[in-house]
Design a protein that fits this description.
The structure holds two protein chains of two kinds. By secondary structure, chain A is an alpha+beta fold. Chain A has two domains: 206 residues, Multidrug efflux transporter AcrB transmembrane domain (Multidrug efflux transporter AcrB transmembrane fold, Up-down Bundle), CATH 1.20.1640.10; 78 residues, ACT domain (Alpha-Beta Plaits), CATH 3.30.70. In chain A, a hairpin with a 5-residue loop joins strand 3 and strand 4. The longest helix of chain A is centred in the last third of the chain and has 33 residues. Chain B is an alpha+beta fold. A four-stranded antiparallel sheet of chain B has the order 9-10-2-20. In chain B, strands 3-4-8-7 form a four-stranded antiparallel sheet. In chain B, strands 14-11-17-18 form a four-stranded antiparallel sheet. The longest helix of chain B has 54 residues. Classes of the chains: A alpha+beta, B alpha+beta. The interface between A and B is large, with 71 and 75 residues.
Chain lengths: 300, 517
């Protein structure tokens, strides 16, 4: 089967909707903000399991009252009887406070209470984690920009970087829109999305470069279209297998990996879309032609 | 591309077997140092406690400067330099001298070699102290390297003390590492409730024995309140004995009232001094001060010359045990605070392993089924390549004795999804070439040749991202970067060698038949 879809025809429409989505994401991130987890905001997270059938979420919430913890966020977490509790604890820095909290909660709730997970991140550390997370993402982008620039031409660098920004912004925008938590594993997910999206873009760019030499008389729009079609089945198959693996983690991997795998699923879908509808049209707008590549060849 | 010499085939599979055989050592126990290697489970999978401690070095600088005061004054007197307005600030010593004494003063600080006041730090090629002169006012402060040296010494010393304290109560292998300039990372596998450890690490355990005074004495005095009786006492600033003189401390029960007490033994110097002081001061009270709190202040009944003594103070056996432990391990140079703490219970860890393994198996089966459906025989080649990929990944993780975390398992699953990409790129390319080429061999050859460039380009970009993640990521995230990076490398190996070799076998067998992919 040889694919022959006219992607070029839809470039404009796709670009306008991409632009809209990116702007909407930036708007969301700025005005609605991000739901930072304790990794980046500082605070305490407790995952507990109660074995008593009679305990309601309101009882759990009530057990954290009068501890002067500020806003306490309690939610059910996976199985029945599992709860996740988060609070910032701004005006409380007794050294053994976690001990006191544990004892108080144990006394107030009936049945066996198992503290499955306790995490506490101080304000200084959370600031550093956020900084190093942003630094890691920026460095990854810079390193890839450089790699593409060395392997291809600058036009390709710009195209791929815009595509990556597109993917990352929309993924984070969606997280803001859905009020999903941003924590360390989301940074890992974003970096993997960056790698995946780049991987996808490079496959199409490689083909475009090859076809520019092969069909030097064709215009870049037609070449992009041809290259996308030629690599389309690979794009679809690889996205499918990656998504199969990710969906398996999302459904079966437990509560802790949910956010990570969701971010990856969103990112893979957007990343696949962007290499076709964002990275390729940019080459057209930048007037890439056979000459762009051959000029470089002569220089060498 | 399709011609494999026998020696090449042999070396490919030899490498594969050598690496992947190590994945088996995780499941069997062999008493051989080389075959004993196993993948470590991260704290999030086996359960345990992760504590990041920060050394608070601000108080150290003042302490260090204070220690310079007595020798400095002595030296100034020796050289007959008159000084006035001698003040110790938060981070400097200030005083005034005569203009014509300045040269003499500079000599005190500028001698290299055995300078008891201003140590020359050879490793930094700098003095510990610096000074400035404003009219006739002198200001002495720690140099940049003086501060660095002080901090790093404090962290090193703290690590030593932390290790001693933890080794006494933790049975499983703890890991204690320096992190950055002023932090200590403690990982305690199997610890479900780190509260007691946090308490033990939160105390500096600076012990001193000092005489209780009636009024002022020549060293000055300060007020303390005895913790239990709430009695206020005035205690001399002169330290008779400090925790440094202790060589052992053990919890015991008092013979008379069966109360828990801590008995201690002193070193030679400490015994002598303790003997002298107790002989000279019978009838007076001796205060026992721990971290600026008075534990007790018993009356000296008799001279104690044997170098052994006891501390009583309304202890429970637990607190007596902890105090003995703290005294045995020595004092921390400065307080430690817990700036990050993550504790995972063992059953959550077990749940995470199960969930991770189940999703890995299901993800793997889905991908294998999909590839078989899509590419038939060649799908099976891709699957063989995928399995060998996973075996090698496990083997390398074992060889490196890497730590597997929950995000690390996610990295492996992601590798499963993305590893087939290399095969897909190759097969799709061959498919295209088969349309143009009449010769199967020619088509396969070209397909491999052309796709390998793309595969390299595509995987290197992901590798860049995961290496950066490894460098900047913390804790469990590092585990993700490790499995993803190694997974990418094994993917390249299995696609380029194993898939290619298996495909070549099929092509050579069917060189004249029509091959469909």
């Amino acid at each position: 089967m040889i694919n022959n879809f006219n992607f070029e025809k839809n470039f404009k429409l796709a670009n306008i909707s991409s632009l809209f989505l990116v702007l909407a994401s930036v708007f969301m991130i700025f005005f609605k903000g991000l739901n930072f987890g304790i990794d980046f905001k500082g605070g305490t997270l407790i995952e507990l399991r109660c074995d008593s059938e009679n305990i309601q979420i309101s009882d759990v919430r009530a057990s954290f009252n009068n501890l002067n913890l500020g806003d306490v966020n309690v939610k059910e977490f996976g199985k029945k009887g599992d709860y996740l509790i988060k609070f910032e604890r701004k005006n409380f820095d007794e050294k053994n406070s976690i001990k006191i909290i544990k004892e108080t909660v144990k006394n107030k709730l009936q049945g066996n209470i198992d503290f499955r997970r306790v995490e506490n991140v101080g304000p200084k550390v959370s600031k550093e984690l956020l900084e190093s997370g942003l630094l890691a993402i920026s460095l990854a982008l810079a390193a890839m920009l450089f790699y593409i620039w060395v392997r291809f031409e600058w036009q390709f660098s710009i195209g791929s970087i815009i595509a990556i920004f597109h993917d990352v912004l929309i993924t984070i925008g969606l997280f803001s829109f859905l009020s999903l938590e941003i924590n360390l594993s989301i940074v890992a997910a974003v970096l993997t999305i960056v790698g995946y999206s780049m991987n996808d873009t490079v496959v199409i760019y490689d083909r475009i470069r090859e076809n520019l030499i092969k069909y030097s008389s064709l215009k870049i729009g037609e070449i992009s279209n041809k290259s996308i079609n030629e690599t389309l089945s690979r794009t679809v198959i690889t996205s499918t297998t990656t998504l199969l693996a990710l969906i398996s983690i999302f459904i079966l991997g437990g509560e802790i990996l949910k956010g990570f795998s969701l971010a990856m699923i969103i990112g893979v879908i957007i990343g696949t879309y962007s290499s076709i509808f964002v990275a390729s049209p940019i080459l057209k707008y930048l007037n890439v032609s056979f000459k762009t590549i051959s000029k470089e060849k002569e220089k060498n | 591309m399709l011609n494999f010499s026998n020696s090449k085939v042999l070396s490919i599979y030899l490498i594969f077997i050598l690496i992947s055989i190590f994945s088996l050592t995780n499941f069997i126990n062999i008493e051989n140092s080389f075959l004993k290697k196993k993948i470590n489970l991260g704290l999030d999978l086996q359960g345990g406690s992760y504590l990041l401690l920060e050394v608070d070095s601000s108080s150290l600088e003042k302490k260090r400067l204070q220690s310079k005061v007595v020798p400095l004054k002595k030296k100034l007197n020796e050289k007959s330099i008159k000084f006035e307005n001698f003040i110790i600030n938060e981070n400097s010593i200030n005083f005034k001298i005569n203009e014509n004494d300045f040269k003499n003063f500079e000599q005190i600080l500028n001698i290299k070699g055995s300078n008891e006041i201003n140590t020359f730090l050879d490793q930094y090629n700098s003095f510990e102290l610096e000074y400035s002169k404003n009219n006739n006012e002198i200001k002495i402060y720690l140099s940049k390297y003086g501060v660095i040296n002080l901090r790093s010494a404090a962290v090193d010393q703290s690590i030593e003390i932390v290790r001693r304290r933890i080794d006494e109560i933790v049975t499983k292998e703890p890991s204690i590492l320096k992190r950055g300039n002023n932090r200590i990372l403690v990982e305690l596998p199997g610890i479900k409730d780190p509260e007691r450890i946090k308490e033990l690490l939160g105390k500096t355990a600076e012990l001193s024995f000092r005489l209780v005074t009636k009024g002022e004495d020549e060293f000055g005095s300060e007020k303390f309140i005895i913790t239990d009786s709430k009695e206020e006492i005035s205690v001399s600033k002169r330290i008779i004995l400090s925790g440094g003189n202790l060589i052992d401390a053990q919890p015991k029960f008092d013979n008379l009232n069966n109360q828990p007490i801590v008995s201690f033994s002193l070193d030679r110097l400490g015994s002598q001094r303790f003997g002298r002081v107790t002989t000279e001061n019978i009838g007076k009270r001796l205060a026992i001060i721990l971290d600026n709190e008075a534990i007790s202040a018993p009356v000296i009944q008799d001279s104690i010359t044997g170098g052994n003594g006891t501390i009583s103070g309304n202890f429970t056996f637990q607190t007596a045990t902890d105090l003995a432990l703290l005294l045995r391990s020595g004092a921390l140079p400065t307080p430690l605070s817990v700036v990050e703490e993550r504790t995972v219970g063992p059953d959550l860890g077990q749940d995470s392993i199960e969930a991770g393994v189940v999703s890995l198996i299901i993800g793997f089966i889905l991908v294998v089924l999909f590839m078989t459906y899509k590419y038939k025989v060649f799908g099976i080649i891709a699957n063989i390549s995928l399995i060998s990929n996973l075996l090698m990944l496990m083997g390398i993780l074992t060889l490196l004795e890497a730590t597997l975390t929950l995000p690390g398992i996610a990295g492996i699953i992601l590798t499963v999804g993305m590893a087939v990409d290399a095969n897909v790129l190759i097969f799709e390319r061959i498919k295209e070439e088969l349309r143009n080429e009449n010769s199967n061999i020619q088509a396969f050859d070209l397909g491999f040749k052309k796709s390998i460039v793309t595969i390299l380009d595509a995987n290197i970009t992901t590798l860049i991202a995961s290496i950066i993640l490894f460098i900047f990521g913390s804790g469990p995230i590092k585990g993700f970067a490790v499995t993803l990076s190694i997974g990418l490398l094994t993917t390249l190996f299995s696609a380029y060698f194993i898939s290619r070799h298996l495909a070549s076998r099929i092509v050579f067998k069917n060189r004249d038949n029509k091959i469909t992919i």
